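@channel anyone free to eyeball this complex?
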Amino acid sequence: MLSILFLSFLILLILGMPIGYVMAVSATLSIASNSNLPGIVMAQKMFTATDSFSLMAIPFFMLAGHLMTEANITQRILDFSKTLVGHITGGLAQTTVMSGMLMAGISGSGAADASAIGGIMVPSLTKDGYDEGFAVSLIASCAALGPIIPPSIIMIMYSSVTNISVGKLFLAGVFPGIVAGIGFMGISYFYARKNGFVPSKRASLKVIGNGFVKAIGALIMPIIIMGGILSGIFTATESGAIACVYGLIYGLVTKSLTIEKIKRALLNATLSTVPAMFVIAVASIFGFIMARENFSSLVLNSILQISDNAYIVLFIVIGFLVALGMFVDTTAAIIMVVPVLVPLIGRFGYDPLHFAIIIVITLVLGALTPPVGMLVYIVAGVKNTPTERAFAHILPFVIWILAIVTFMVFFPKVVLFIPNLMS
Amino acid sequence: MKKIIDGTEKLVSRVLIALLCTFVSIVIVQVVARYIFKSPLTWTEQTARYMFIWMIMLGIPVTFRKNMNAAFDLVTSRMDKKIVDFINIFNTLLITFFAGYYFFSSMHLVFRSTKTIAQGINIPINYVYTAQPICAVLLILYCLEKLVDDIKIVSAKRVVRKGGV
Amino acid sequence: KKTNVASKTEEKVVLKFGHILAVGTLGDKTANEYAKRVLEESNGRIVVEVFPAGQLGTLPENMEALEFGVLAMAFVDGSMLSTIVPEFGMIALPFILRDFEHAEAVLASDTMKAFEDKLITLKGIRPLSWHQNANRVFLTKKPIYEIKDFHNILVRSPEAKLYMDTFQRLGMKPTPIPWGEAFTALQSHIVDAVDGDPILLEQLGFYESAKYLTDTRHIISTLGLAVSEKKWNDLSDEDKEILSRVALEVKDFHINNFFTDVNAAFEKLEAAGVAITNIEDKQSLLDLFKPYWSEYAVGLENGEKILQEIIDAK
Ligand code: NA
Ligand code: NA
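replying in thread with the prediction:
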């Protein structure tokens, strides 16, 4: 059954069938060829995967993004950030990373961040002369900070599988998240320098002030969202809906939105949400078949045969997770792997929290790697960027995250410093 | 024929807009009722979620027709165009197979759940489960449309080649 | 169908057992203990493969999976079963199970047997043993001594009518929030209370933002170790006997460890500075909820009779 699943997956992927349908068709072939598995399981899995309130953040932020684009807010943010950081090499890219880190601090979902930042920044960055592929890679990587910097839905899932404290796991994500963000700024700097982005002259205070006034409507939005979540007015998911209302009111007040534009934003928001949700839905069937056929315990048990050395085993596990993450969605991977992994690795004496944060970050990386990289797809969806182009610039970001993971393996004290400080 | 199929897409797109509008509003109402009026509503979250499911299920065929799903085109973009035309037919046939299987799978689920009640708001679960077979039917329709188009492309080229050489 | 009984008994039987409890929890340990003992008792012939933590699906999915034979075994939840056989809702009613002994008596009663038969006929789900699992308590941001202290507290509620009704009756304001967002909702004051299993609330660190625990044990959740009737019918009588007997054995294993774990959780919570209180006037709670029991019973065939049987169970 697994051989049918994997073989058809690879063949159809190479034949250029859309990724969601690759997974759907190969899952169908596997289920249809197995007499022990009733076909009803397909409808059941697809339903449960989409039946999630947290995932509703995706259409919310997609809509907020499209409303802002229609209301021209995007352009104003662009102008303002240029006056602010335009004199730094790669200024707009730096702005993207900074807003990615801020968004990560308020939202728990990488998918939501990808749609929130992507909807606004893909048009801005490309307008500013950045390669569309670089823009997609950069924004997707920034969105990956979402589940690393707390709050984080992925961490909540990890803790529900293993019953580790959510609060501590959140705190463990702060350090690697910030380091990752700083690294992304470095990557942006080198990219901009290599491609001869000429830093503009430092803007005068008056110009900055003008830009600020024009952009203030847009700049208030993150404050409303962050303030609302922190003061307990709404949840991270609900904040997406609030962002929509804000975008709408802003557009109506400034008279930059018409009924036609609102309609277009609504339709575009659904159409950019659906492909991502479809992949999530079919990935759940795919993951179910892999779990049912004991795929991860087969692989992990053979890993443990290779060596008794705790470090070597951990690195092989990380390697396996990176490979798995290439094909399987982060959420599905957590459900599939973690229940098998935690008891197996338990005997090597790793601190469960240390181990947890390493696993979480490694699996989040899977959302950035080709051929199935959810976050890249969501951002690429904004302008329908071809896959090949979207993944062309992802490598430096992936390497930086892997470097952080490696560092974390060897220096648990640094990783656990913040959580230990708090308790 | 084309007109009818275009009509279904237009209709579904309108429904999509209405659904998104409605569930955004419901979530706003939820926040307002809880935070301002201090009386949280118990039906909003689940209702919004079920509309979200409808939106996805109706959106799947539309995004298929509009060709909005990401594909890994590293290999096919380097292939001969004529071969790719045949591969497209092959791919669409398989997607039709999936859609057909999904239809039977979801119909089965609907028929087995005629007495099941959704846990929170007391409505039959089939009010939501039904979205799936509808998704499948539309997907089959658009697959068939695409097959006809794809075959036309291939046969048109054949004719040209025969005439040319 | 095979007619040769001798060859059938030598055949290996593989049973997939899915549950949603986290790795290493008592429920997961019980499932593994079950697999281990069944393997021993059958001399390695019956292999129960345990899939923990929702790997093969959510709770409602697992119930459907048993029905369709996708899964051979699963833990089902007493209150969740009420969506398909409403009678099961009776044992999940708030405060209806008075204490450990009473709950054991109810779970072993003929009344319960009748529910099970209905479940087998209607949905092909056959429970082999019933295990008391979570005794739900409240974590709040202020201390609770009597019912009126509950009034107007915004409480995170699971998305089930039973819980919303229970909280409403206590005067609380139920707010449905997915479990995944419950932790942050409590932290940021979107809600001021959560309810749940004390073991879980301790492990997940919920007490970090709500320092008062009210030991109400308002709902005692029950785990049924269930087998799919489709698979069951394919088994030999010998295998059925082994599976049923071991199910009752691990039920004792579960219970014995259960109280150790609960007490340990309470100790850890107290050590973390959580104040543990209770509602002293137990009768006030019963007075409040008895009408609710009757309300629920009215909707069922022979409801009043069933209710009385449950109350009287010994
Ligand atoms: Na986050
Ligand atoms: Na990937």
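from a first look: Residues 2-161 of chain B form one domain.
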